[in-house]
Amino acid sequence: MMELYLDTANLAEIREIADWGILSGVTTNPSLLAKAGINVKDFMAEIASLVTGPLSLEVTAEDADTMVEQAKFLKTYGENVVIKLPLTEAGLKACGLLKKAGIPTNLTLVFSANQALLAARAGATYVSPFVGRLNDNGAAGNLLLEEIRAIFDRYQQKTKIIAASIRSPRDVTDAALFGADIATIPYGVMKKMVKHPLTDVGLAQFKADWEKSGLCL
Ligand code: G3P
Question: Could you tell me which of 175, 210, 208 has the C-alpha nearest to residue 189?
Answer without folding.
Answer: 175
